[in-house]
Design brief:
257 residues; Jelly Rolls; binds 2-acetamido-2-deoxy-beta-D-glucopyranose
């Protein structure tokens, strides 16, 4: 069951440029020369599988970035980031991903998408669960701090499209992206130091919550590998310029043969 944006979302910036429509079933964010706009979830979560359907800015979206991310508060914050970097009409968007742990990032990857993200709504999911696969290798993994969902559309034409060469064409403004079917049925809401998953009927580590223990089985590893082979255009783990002292430990995790 999808939630209602009136109930679950606060519009936090953009002076009227982000709007809840259709009785709470649809949400739009927009960007013009004066400002972008954005929203956040009312709830904070500690572990979640969150789904949202998004239809990105169509046509000439060069220089715009639509971000969709989970983030905690404060200087040593955790963040799981999806950023969609716009492009000229007919040229591909880039999906830029990053993870911040305790304020440290430098974990960027970039992908082309295998579909047109502007032609229709597509479902984007963030699965954040306590399996510390990466942490086991000595890397901090977002674990302790509750995070909130954020999304926004803004001007990033100093870096987004072809490294900043292509600027926003303001004659095409306003730029608008749409959202629907925000699904937090598989999210543990965090409030006053307790989790909604932490009741007697549904213990926090209950194995009835499949998403909480989902890890990459062989078939999903295989799919991920195929996407990486065909669509990945940047990986911090293969960029020696980023890590003159050597790559971070998770880069040495073994992958499929
Ligand atoms: C935009 O299109 C150009 C030309 O196809 C491509 O090099 C670039 O990676 C695309 N995406 C972005 C966000 O720059």
């Amino acid at each position: 069951m999808a939630s209602n944006f009136y109930k679950d979302i606060d519009i936090i910036w953009g002076d009227g440029r982000a709007k809840i429509l259709n009785n709470g079933e649809l949400l739009s964010v927009s960007l013009d020369k004066i400002s972008g706009s954005g929203f956040q979830s009312k709830n904070e979560y500690l572990y979640a599988k969150i789904d949202m359907q998004i239809k990105l800015v169509p046509g000439n979206s060069a220089g715009t970035v639509t971000a969709f991310y989970l983030s905690s508060k404060g200087e040593y914050h955790d963040e799981i980031d999806f950023e969609f970097l716009g492009n000229l009409s007919g040229d591909p968007y880039i999906l830029h991903t990053n993870v911040f742990c305790q304020g440290k990032s430098k974990r960027e990857q970039q992908f082309y998408l295998w579909f047109d993200p502007t032609a229709d709504f597509h479902t984007y999911s963030i699965l954040w669960n306590p399996l510390r696969i990466v942490e086991a290798f000595g890397v901090p993994f977002p674990k302790y701090q509750p995070m909130r969902l954020f999304s926004s559309l803004w001007n990033a034409d100093n870096w987004a499209t072809r490294g900043g060469l292509v600027k926003i064409d303001w004659s095409k403004a306003p730029f608008t992206a749409y959202y629907r079917n925000f699904n937090t049925n598989n999210a543990c809401v965090w409030s006053h130091g307790t989790s909604s998953c932490d009741s007697n009927s549904q213990p926090f580590f209950s194995n009835t919550k499949e998403w909480m223990w989902a890890k990459f089985d062989y078939s999903s590893q295989y799919k991920l590998k195929r996407v990486q082979d065909k669509y990945m255009i940047y990986n911090y783990c293969t960029d020696p310029k980023r890590f003159p002292q050597g790559f971070p430990p998770e880069c040495y995790l073994t992958h499929l043969p």
